[in-house]
Specification:
The chain has ten helices and five strands. It is of the alpha+beta class and 211 residues long. The protein has one domain: Glutaredoxin, CATH 3.40.30. β4 and β5 form a beta hairpin. The longest helix is centred in the C-terminal third of the chain and has 18 residues. The chain starts with a helix and ends with a helix.
C-alpha cells in the first residue's frame, strides 16, 4: 500500500479521534538501528537483519504474512541466520490499525506476533462484518486478555502516541512511504515481495556478504 507523507501525517494525527470509531474513545546503520521498542524474532547477534514496516490493516502486508513470511521464518529466522524486526505502521481504517497494534503490545512479547498474525488473517472479516471491535476482542481474548484489559489497552493514549511518534520517525528518517517496506541490514529491498525465493535470494546474498 503506497502512502504519501500527507496521508501518513493525517493518519497519525487522527488516530486518537478515530479510536472512537471502534466505540472506544481515546483518553487524552539507520535501517538496522534496533531499539528496545522494536519487536523481533531471531537472535540479536544475527549477521543479517530483516526489517519490515507494515500495518495490520494493509492488504499487501497480510498477503506477505500469509504467503511469504512462513517460508522465510522457517528457513532463515528459526535457524538463527536472520533477525526479523516488525515495525508498526497505521493504514486505513486507522482506528482498527491502531487497536490491533495496541492489543498485540498488551498481549506481551511472547504473544505479540501471534496477535499480529491473527489480525492480519482476520482482515476480511474485519472489513466486511461491520464488527471490528468484536473481532479484535476475540483475538485479544485468545491471547489471554479480558474484556476490561482489552478496553484499557485500546484506549491507552501513551500507546497511541508511541505508534505515531515512531511512524513519524520512520517517514522522516528512513523515507518509508508505503507498506510493506523491507530493509535487509541497511539496504532497502526493492525485489519481489510476493515470492519467498526472491526474498530468500536477497537474504542469502546478505549472509554471504556478512561472512
Amino acid at each position: 500500500m503506497t502512502l504519501t507523507r500527507k496521508t501518513l501525517v493525517k493518519s497519525a494525527l487522527a488516530t486518537g479521534l478515530l479510536l472512537a470509531g471502534l466505540g472506544l474513545a481515546a483518553c487524552g546503520n539507520k535501517a538496522a538501528n534496533i531499539g528496545a521498542d522494536d519487536m523481533s524474532m531471531g537472535p540479536a547477534d544475527a549477521k543479517v537483519t530483516l526489517i519490515e514496516y507494515a500495518s495490520v490493516t494493509c492488504v499487501h502486508c497480510a498477503t506477505f504474512n500469509e504467503k511469504v513470511f512462513p517460508a522465510i521464518k522457517e528457513k532463515y529466522i528459526d535457524t538463527g541466520k536472520v533477525r526479523y524486526v516488525y515495525r508498526e505502521f497505521l493504514t486505513g481504517p486507522a482506528d482498527v490499525s491502531a487497536a490491533g497494534v495496541l492489543v498485540a503490545r498488551c498481549a506481551g512479547k511472547d504473544k505479540y506476533f501471534q496477535v499480529i498474525d491473527a489480525v492480519m488473517r482476520s482482515q476480511n472479516e474485519i472489513f466486511t462484518s461491520g464488527d471490528s471491535k468484536g473481532v479484535l476482542m476475540r483475538i485479544a481474548s485468545s491471547a489471554g486478555l479480558s474484556e476490561e484489559q482489552f478496553t484499557q489497552c485500546v484506549n491507552d493514549p501513551e500507546g497511541v502516541k508511541r505508534i505515531n511518534d515512531n511512524m513519524e520517525t520512520y517517514v522522516k528518517t528512513y523515507n518509508i512511504t508505503g507498506t510493506p517496506s523491507f530493509f535487509i541490514n541497511d539496504k532497502k529491498y526493492e525485489g519481489d515481495i510476493t515470492d519467498p525465493n526472491a526474498l530468500g535470494a536477497a537474504l542469502d546474498a546478505a549472509l554471504a556478504e556478512a561472512k
